């Protein structure tokens, strides 16, 4: 069975080298919608696949990092990156360009890891991430499955190459969340939230 939770955020970017010049040459924003699609063949004690309340602990904080922030590609020009950081407290640097496709791969890798590290307490079984859908506009989206997130053809992504600005980190409910994820620290999920 598949279940789906929707998250929203407002984010600015430039997508270098894309065919549409409005996108590749201008800083602009989108109202993003991210669908997290979770899968299991089993139900937990509450007869649910996965209680959405649990997504508030880590998944929500990570996705919310991108809200009212600018997303930068680490291979962009130093001049541009430095200027953006000078005028924005909330920024994220990615090792890939912030296209909807790469956003969906990034979110897949992070959320897959969060689910993997989560010690579930309410009888959830074999809960896995089916896919991530990132809507950049009302009419277009990118959907990432496991094979896409880990595709060498699309380029391997290392989570340690993602950087969140100090202001973004300060606004997390748990300031160590990224450290815990990178260090494979088991994430304790409470029985109730
Ligand atoms: Zn755009």
Task: Fill in the keyword field for this structure.
193 residues, alpha/beta, Tetrahydropterin Synthase, Chain A, 7-stranded mixed β-sheet, binds zinc ion
Q: What's this entry about, in short?
A:
With 193 residues, the chain is of the alpha/beta class.
Description:
With about 190 residues, the protein is an alpha/beta fold. The chain has a single domain, classed as 6-pyruvoyl tetrahydropterin synthase/QueD (Tetrahydropterin Synthase, Chain A). The protein is built from seven helices and nine strands, in the order E-H-E-H-E-H-E-H-E-E-E-H-E-H-H-E. The strands form two sheets. Strands 7-6-2-1-3-4-8 form a seven-stranded mixed β-sheet. Strands 5-9 form a two-stranded parallel sheet. The radius of gyration is 17 Å and the shape is globular. The relative contact order is 0.19. The model has no long low-confidence stretch (mean pLDDT about 95). Bound molecules: zinc ion (ZN). The site of zinc ion (ZN) has 6 residues, from strand 2.
Please describe the topology of this protein:
Elements: E1 2-13, H1 21-25, E2 28-39, H2 59-64, E3 69-73, H3 78-87, E4 91-94, H4 100-117, E5 118-119, E6 128-135, E7 141-145, H5 146-149, E8 163-164, H6 166-170, H7 177-182, E9 187-188
Parallel strand pairs: 1-3, 3-4, 5-9
Antiparallel strand pairs: 1-2, 2-6, 4-8, 6-7
Bound molecules: zinc ion.
């Amino acid at each position: 069975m598949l279940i789906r939770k929707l998250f929203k955020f407002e984010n600015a970017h430039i997508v270098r080298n894309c065919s549409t010049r409005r996108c590749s040459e201008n800083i602009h924003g989108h109202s993003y919608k991210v669908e997290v699609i979770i899968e299991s063949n089993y139900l937990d004690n509450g007869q649910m696949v996965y209680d959405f309340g649990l997504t508030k602990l880590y998944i929500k904080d990570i996705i919310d990092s991108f809200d009212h922030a600018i997303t930068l590609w680490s291979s962009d020009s130093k001049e541009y990156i430095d200027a953006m950081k000078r005028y924005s407290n909330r920024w994220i640097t990615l090792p890939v360009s912030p296209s909807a496709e790469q956003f969906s791969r990034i979110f897949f890798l992070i959320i897959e890891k969060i689910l993997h590290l989560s010690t579930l307490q309410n009888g959830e079984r074999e809960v896995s991430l089916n896919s991530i859908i990132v809507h950049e506009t009302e009419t277009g989206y990118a959907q990432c499955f496991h094979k896409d997130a880990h595709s060498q053809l699309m380029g391997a992504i290392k989570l340690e190459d993602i950087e969140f600005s100090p202001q973004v980190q300060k606004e997390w409910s748990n300031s160590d969340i990224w450290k815990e994820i990178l260090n494979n620290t088991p994430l304790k999920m409470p029985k109730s939230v």
